[in-house]
Amino acid sequence: MPANRSTLLRRGIAALAALPLLTLAACSYGSESKNDTSDAKIAAGAKKIDGLDSVKIGYFGNLTHGTALVGNQKGFFQKELGATKADYQLFNAGPSEIEALNSGSIDIGWIGPSPAINGYTKSDGKNLRIIGGSASGGVKLVVNPKKIKSLKDVKGKKIATPQLGNTQDVAFLNWVAEQGWKVDAQSGKGDVSVVRTDNKVTPDAFKSGSIDGAWVPEPTASKLVAEGGKVLLDESSLWPDKKFVITNIIVSQSFLKEHPKAVEAVLKASVETNKWINGHPDEAKAAANKQLASDSGKALPADVLDPAWKSIQFTDDPLAGTLSTEAQHAVKSGLLQNPKLDGIYDLTLVNKVLKAEGGSTVDDAGLGVK
After folding, report:
1. Which sign does the torsion angle of CA 20, 127, 63, 38 carry?
2. Which of 4, 58, 346, 349 could disulfide-pair with 129, CB 3.0 to 4.6 Å?
3. What is the number of H-type helices and E-type strands within the chain?
4. Residue-by-residue DSSP string for 278-327
5. Which of 266, 22, 258 is nearest to 131 (CA)?
């Protein structure tokens, strides 16, 4: 990846308000937002944290939100919250989760980089903080091998992305530009036709031949492979160390200020969950799929679940430098004016947890609270 990709963002956000929300609708795999009705067991004698009856946690029904899926299914969050109930809410689009955070319908959420960037800048840095990392990777360019045999064959073809301005849409537009091809970001027309298609629809569009491929996250990518598609490019290959942020943990600034012990408890559970996931990959995969089935009513088949899970890395590191780069990609594509990201991170509590666990602390790439 060229060195200038990591250039710090410098310009303002004057035109941002006129643009659509940068969303992670790519993660829209599952039902619309809904309250979780499962009641994890609360240990006898447990006490409420910060006097709270509940902590409202949001996430997507998607494998890249595996920390939240497994943490819910295995009871890690409830264990750390004691008698304070872990109250889960499922989303399938970034804007709705940001709206829920702003309204107080949720307190903490798992979400992708684009909606986090947009939510932060649209509120002039007042509504959220990124407080930890969760996952890296899990995004692929999958194509019809009869129509596209090499990367150069992508030119002139119809390639789906989940939504205008979402994380994968921006990544694909940036990749197209690096090939020397031109595409109008808003219309998707040019040397490549970018077809914005909901992930739930993409597999059928692929089968019907109305698209020739798709730049999508898991498990959609593996669903396309199961339908005869071929992985032409794994996005991780474009990043230093093959790592880039796909899921962060965010919190409302008011909740962080008023209930730091509750936030710390959730972060401790997240760190414990990631440690368990990485130490028990097969059991963790099964737990994530069981929670998906509970949330959406449908588990993933093995030919989709297995390759999808392998392509995702679960990490406490928010990979802050890559968030800056992803924002710059949106600027280069013409979808975003350079946002001011200073203060988007507050990693104080996650680093406190990591130190207590004997682990390495994580860095905010100079974008933390001062």
Report:
1. negative
2. 346
3. 13, 12
4. HH-HHHHHHHHHHHHHHHHS-PPPHHHHHHHHHTEEE-S---HHHHHHHH
5. 266
